[in-house]
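We treat protein structure as text, and this decision shapes the records that our systems exchange. The tokens are whole numbers drawn from a learned vocabulary of local backbone shapes. Below, we set out a record of this kind in full and without editing:
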Amino acid sequence: MESYAQTGNPPDEAEAFARYLVLGGMPFLYSHVLDETSAKQYLSDIFNSIILKDIAQRNKVRDIERLERLILFFIANVGNTLSAASIVRYLKNEKRGLSTETIYNYISYCKEACLLHLVPREDLIGKKALSFQEKVYLSDHGLREAVYGNNQRDISQILENIVYMELLRHGYDVHVGKVGSAEVDFAAEKSGEKLYIQVAYLLADERIVEREFSPLEAIPDNYPKYVVSMDELDRGRNGIRHMNIRRFLLEQSWV
């Protein structure tokens, strides 16, 4: 990935998004000319500062290594469904037992430090909140690349994280949706207006197309519905819009 620092030329839209996909959106990275190594070091320093100052020192956390392991588990599982039980199992496998109460305290500290977001699930047909198995997202996915790596390998997770944070920036209240046994990545609401969004890397075959569109088609209302992916070709159907993620991010409004 060639950087602005290497070429001396402003990147085009696709190149800018490729850099954003890896390094995230911290303003300092785009107001200063940094190569990728320097950018990752900057992000790593921010991450360490958050853990040591905003979380550990402020909340008097003694076992910083255990806190870091838990945070790295969340970072690795961006966009995945988690529960307290799954976290406890992970820590036991790491020989790092932790009570459920302490886990929730650590999660609360991370949320207060604006590092993590936990997104509740909602039954979109029964119209009720589901009180278990939330999804976790990161305030800036560039931090993930700096401390864990693999943003390009785990691109589906990163695209979800990007769309979630964009919905927050637009002022939406966001839930993970459930329609029967299927999942809708995001059900978002603002000022009485709703929209539903599925996020995919590529609609590479009909099986994936069906997987992404069918849950949206099962929602019994007429609010806007989107499938967002890296594809350039429009695969929209039955009133559901399909948009390339770059175009989606550049839209001023989706309703």
Remarks:
- The domain at 154-255 is CATH 3.40.1350.10 (Trna Endonuclease; Chain: A, domain 1).
- The two ends are 35 Å apart (CA to CA).
- The CA atoms of residues 195 and 223 lie 6 Å apart.
- Residues 2-7 have pLDDT under 50 and may be disordered.
